[in-house]
Design goal:
Layout lengths: L1 E8 L3 E4 L2 E2 L4 H11 L3 E5 H6 L9 E5 L10 E4 L2 H6 L7 E3 L3 H7 L5 E7 L8 E2 L8 E9 L9 E8 L2
Parallel strand pairs: 1-7, 1-8, 4-5, 4-7, 5-6
Antiparallel strand pairs: 2-3, 2-9, 8-11, 10-11
Length: about 160
């Protein structure tokens, strides 16, 4: 099972200058609950944006063309294809960014676990790929209003590939 997981603004924006656009505690909790105990795959810049390096209790795979790349508790691969070949058939794999990794993985993904943030940021330089209604169908949707801990309303939406 290959899943793309992201927090996405209404215009598809996901980041600015290698940083997330939104800090939503419930999104972070959901991310942790879904990915813990599984494999996460990310580009090198996404890995470098993590404040404490490799995320605990997960197999961390970093995509980089730099053969000298080394980081504690990570595995490095030169391509998404090579990384996925190194995973077991029954392994649950989550793609966690960045934009180019999402774009490449979208073609082979089985599921999307998105947090749609009901906002359009003034600035962004990284975007999630367009979701085609012909290729994806909504499996689950859960809307949440803004509150004292969440500056924006948001919706958790899980998509599965339409077969």
């Amino acid at each position: 099972m290959l899943t793309l997981i992201a927090a996405v603004a209404e215009n598809g924006a996901i980041g600015l200058q290698n940083k997330l656009l939104y800090w939503l505690p419930n999104d972070l909790k959901r991310f942790k609950a879904l990915t813990t105990g599984h494999t996460i795959v990310m580009g090198r810049k996404t890995f470098e944006s993590l404040p404490k390096g490799a995320l605990p209790n997960r197999r961390n795979i970093v995509l980089t063309r730099n053969r000298a790349f080394k980081a504690e508790d990570t595995e490095a691969f030169a391509s998404l294809e090579a990384a996925l070949k190194a995973c077991e058939a029954d392994e649950e794999v989550f793609i966690i960014g960045g934009a180019s990794v999402y774009a490449e993985a979208m073609k082979v993904a089985d599921r999307l676990c998105l947090t749609i943030v009901h906002d359009t940021p003034a600035d962004a330089d990284a975007f999630f790929p367009t979701i085609s209604a012909e290729e994806w169908r909504v499996e689950n949707e859960e809307r949440h209003d803004a509150d004292e801990r969440h500056a924006f309303a948001y919706t958790f939406i899980d998509y599965v590939r339409a077969r």
